[in-house]
From TrEMBL:
GO terms for cellular component: cytosol. It comes from Salinivibrio kushneri. Belongs to the cytidine and deoxycytidylate deaminase family. This is Cytidine deaminase. Zn(2+) binds at H102, C129, C132. The keyword Zinc applies. Its EC number is 3.5.4.5. It holds the Pfam family dCMP_cyt_deam_2. InterPro entries: APOBEC/CMP_deaminase_Zn-bd, CMP_dCMP_dom, Cyd/dCyd_deaminase_Zn-bd, Cyt/Deoxycyt_deaminase, Cyt_deam_dimer, Cytidine_deaminase-like, Cytidine_deaminase_bacteria.
């Protein structure tokens, strides 16, 4: 287990530490809590709902990868079933700052890669930046998303983002996290990692460019982690497919040194491409990581 996670555990109330330590010591801990685990934590600690999520924030922030800022942000999202997903900010040295993943984006994409369809709450240890407010406005259920910060009443997203600009302004009805199938056939792909990337492309949210795209990362123990591209109505807050796959890798407890190979699948004729940025970010992580690429 990560040292940061062990350290974070000591910041939790004692009653929570004893329940949570068994779970996080499990090598398969996936940085999420089922509704049953949430109920167990609530009864052990006497903290419920938002108070429990605030108490768990140090665990989320322990997943931060911050070689540039050393400023660790933690976020926890709750989906409509009551499952909690942790997230933290991820920075990359050697590329432009635009490749950074914010904690809010991390927690949301983590939930998305595990099948969450609608989020009810997000709990964060710092106020969400403008870029994250805009990213959250793309979500299914953005209108009712509740934002909870320490020492603050919960407020809905549109209190943090008044007079929002969003998908409807561009005539787009689909939202991030709804079931999307982009009708791409992936049956003919015989490289498994590339097929995983293309399957992710099929579930990507790219209504603005039409560049349905996905990435997949294979770790040295043979696990696959997929990431779907998440476009945003304001374009710049979009999250590239490699970042979403790396979020899944990080939240499963792996390090970049565990990456064996990466695949990227995107559309052949599109106005945008992820190839150059994906290659640049991977080169910055480790130039020896092979990238398999295909378009359709
Ligand atoms: N950060 C977040 O993760 N969320 C926010 O909304 C504020 C900023 C991160 C990004 C970067 O890694 C570091 O904090 C400094 O901006
Ligand atoms: Zn942000």
């Amino acid at each position: 287990m990560r040292t940061a996670l062990t350290d974070a555990l000591t910041q939790l109330p004692d009653a929570l530490q004893s329940v949570v330590s068994d779970w996080i010591n499990d090598a398969n801990f996936g940085a999420s809590f089922t509704p049953e685990q949430v109920a167990q934590m609530e009864s052990a600690s006497g903290l419920s709902g938002a108070a429990l999520r605030l108490a768990l924030l140090p665990l989320a922030a322990a997943y931060a990868v911050t070689p540039i800022s050393q400023f660790n942000v933690g976020a926890i999202v709750r989906d409509e079933s009551g499952t909690l997903y942790l997230g933290a900010n991820i920075e990359f040295t050697g590329v432009q700052l635009g490749q950074t993943v914010h904690a809010e984006q991390c927690a949301i994409s983590h939930a998305w890669t595990k099948g969450a369809k609608r989020l009810t709450d997000i709990t964060i240890n710092y106020s969400p930046c403008g870029h994250c407010r805009q990213f959250m406005n793309e979500l299914n259920g953005a209108e009712s998303l509740s934002i909870q910060l320490p020492q603050c009443d919960a407020k809905d997203l549109h209190t943090y983002l008044p007079e929002p600009f969003g998908p409807a302004d561009l005539g787009i009805e689909s939202r991030l996290l709804t079931d999307e199938s982009n009708q791409l056939s992936t049956d003919d792909i015989d490289i498994p990692l590339l097929k995983a990337a293309a399957d992710a492309a099929n579930r990507s949210h790219a209504p603005y460019s039409g560049n349905y795209s996905g990435a997949a990362v294979e770790t040295s123990d043979g696990e696959f982690f997929s990431g779907m591209y998440a476009e945003n109505a304001a374009f710049n807050p979009s999250l590239p497919p490699l970042q979403v796959a790396l979020i899944a890798v990080n939240m499963a407890g792996y390090h970049w040194t565990d990456i064996r190979s990466v695949a990227l699948a995107e559309m052949a004729s599109s106005t945008v491409s992820h190839l150059a940025d994906t290659q640049a970010t991977l080169d910055a992580i480790d130039p020896d990581i092979p990238l398999v690429y295909s378009t359709r």
